[in-house]
Amino acid sequence: MREAPAGDFDYEETGHAYSSVRKSEPRFGVAIRKAFGDAKRVLNVGAGAGSYEPEDLDVVALEPSAVMRAQRPAHLVEAIDGVAEELPFGDCSFDASLASITIHQWRDLGAGLKEMRRVAKGPVVILTFEPVALQRFWLSEFAPEMMQYESGRMPALDEVAAHLGGSVEVSAVPIPHDCVDGFAEAFYGRPEAFLDESVRRSQSAWGFVSPDVEETSVARLSESLSDGTWDQRHGSLRRLLAYEGSLRLVVAMP
Q1: Which candidate, 68, 60, 156, places its Cα nearest to that of 110?
Q2: Segments in 48-203 forming alpha helices (H)
Q3: Which of 87, 189, 210, 249 could form a disulfide with 115 if both were Cys (CB 3.0 to 4.6 A apart)?
Q4: For residue range 19-68, what is the model confidence (pLDDT) as tens digits?
Q5: Around 140, how many Cα atoms within 13 Å sit in the side-chain half-sphere?
Q6: In angstroms, rounded to a whole number, what is the distance separating the alpha carbons of residues 50 and 79?
Q7: What domains are there in the chain, each with its CATH number?
Q8: In the chain, which ranges are E strands?
Q9: Residue 168 bridge partners (DSSP)
């Protein structure tokens, strides 16, 4: 085990229940699989508990956290211990490479993205969040400190494209109302979820504010739900079948 976390969040300390809330959303998986085209062999970087790994392809998974590797389902390949910035593979070893909801945690974004490009003959596929759009999410009203920090963690997409080079396409990914991948915007129409500590523990953003700030934010939301203020302002989101927030799919070709 590493002496220090490989990224900006310590999953060894707080990631033990991650996979219970953060599951693969099938509709995102379809978009990711389509982006791979005719790729046969794929590297999943920052693979975590295995979300969005295409089960019909030859996958190599790389994940620095032992706690996260231990949560991978038995039907998925065993993940290799390693970091994005130093991929232990030769040039063009894979047809494609994938990084889903992870690049904002890397210590050196440029190095990691260039490594992903180096080892992939074809597409580099990245699922990430657009920082300005994320800051507009309604949770900023109740947890402003957390959301400001979280949006600041997200790299600008033009920076991502510059590191990847080649031809880069970015598309918005609609978030379904019943999304099973429990990142913050997944609960756009289910605000009560944030009152559940297990949900918050599966979202690394809460780990960057103090317990007092978290408690105040949750109390503020709870009061707004109890007195009807949240529904007066945002109640229409409960009936919205899909929400176009900050989630983006980046596909880079050499």
Answers
A1: 156
A2: 66-69, 109-119, 131-135, 144-153, 157-164, 197-201
A3: 87
A4: 556 788 999 999 999 999 999 999 999 998 888 999 999 999 999 989 88
A5: 14
A6: 9
A7: 11-253 (3.40.50.150)
A8: 41-45, 58-62, 96-100, 124-129, 167-172, 175-176, 242-243, 247-253
A9: 252
